[in-house]
């Protein structure tokens, strides 16, 4: 028991000051990783808020919100994002064809995170830090809409081994985002 007490004495959580995080203006002026999150018909402000937190934490370029995805300002987004809507660039997407065409012209590769007949396991996709990606996440119940599925050719799924067939969309976004970010950090 004495060893355990020594461990707790030596380890302490860092305070907010000790974390030395960037200010919003410092964050906004930094170069971002060339990754965007596209929310397709995400109805929960808590999930959208999580997307903003993920994009802020990992230094992603932007969060794009398509169709009826809830948008800032919104109390549920604010509660989960805790200010990340102020640091992360975001855009409302009205026309998915125009959006995908524009982003492809900018060199982005749209990747749908969805269980489809064409999906490959996340860890088998050849990620390159020289590429730019849009990670597309769909509605909490229905997934990514057919309108987007028909316009994309890269489909990934997170391997799962339990009895449930899916993860919460914000949990999936965190897993996939961290997986992609790892390749940029190498």
What's the helix-strand series? HHHEHEHHEHEEEHEH
Coarse shape: globular
Distance between the termini: 40 Å
Structural class computed from helices and strand pairing = alpha/beta
Q: Which CATH architecture?
A: 3-Layer(aba) Sandwich
The total beta strand count reads 7
- Report the CATH C-level class: Alpha Beta
How would you state the average pLDDT, rounded? 95
Major sheet attributes: 7 strands, parallel
How many separate domains make up the residues? 1
Radius of gyration: 18 Å
What is the CATH topology descriptor? Alpha/beta knot
Q: What is the helix content?
A: 40-55%
The CATH homologous superfamily is called SPOUT methyltransferase, trefoil knot domain
Q: In which order are the strands of the major sheet placed?
A: 3-2-1-6-4-7-5
Beta-strand content estimate: 15-25%
Structure notes:
This protein has 186 residues and is an alpha/beta fold. The protein has one domain (26-185): Alpha/beta knot, CATH 3.40.1280. Helix content is 40%, strand content 20%. It has 9 helices and 7 strands, in the order H-H-H-E-H-E-H-H-E-H-E-E-E-H-E-H. A 7-stranded parallel β-sheet has the order 3-2-1-6-4-7-5, with helices on both faces. The longest helix has 17 residues, at 169-185.
């Amino acid at each position: 028991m004495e060893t355990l007490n020594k461990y707790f004495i030596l380890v302490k959580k860092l305070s907010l000051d000790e974390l030395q995080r960037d200010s919003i203006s410092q964050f906004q002026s930094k170069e971002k990783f060339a990754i965007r999150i596209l929310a397709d018909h995400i109805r929960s402000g808590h999930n959208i808020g999580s997307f903003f937190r993920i994009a802020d934490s990992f230094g992603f370029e932007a969060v794009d919100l398509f169709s009826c995805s809830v948008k800032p300002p919104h109390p549920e987004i604010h509660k989960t994002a805790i200010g990340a809507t102020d640091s992360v660039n975001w855009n409302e997407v009205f026309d998915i064809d125009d959006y995908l065409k524009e982003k492809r012209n900018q060199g982005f590769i749209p990747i749908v995170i969805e269980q489809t007949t064409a999906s490959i396991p996340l860890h088998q996709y050849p990620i390159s830090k020289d590429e730019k990606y849009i990670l597309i996440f769909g509605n909490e119940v229905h997934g990514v809409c057919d309108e987007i599925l028909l316009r994309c050719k890269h489909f990934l799924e997170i391997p799962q081994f339990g009895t449930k067939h899916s993860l919460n969309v914000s949990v999936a976004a965190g897993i996939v985002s961290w997986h992609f970010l790892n390749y940029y950090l190498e």
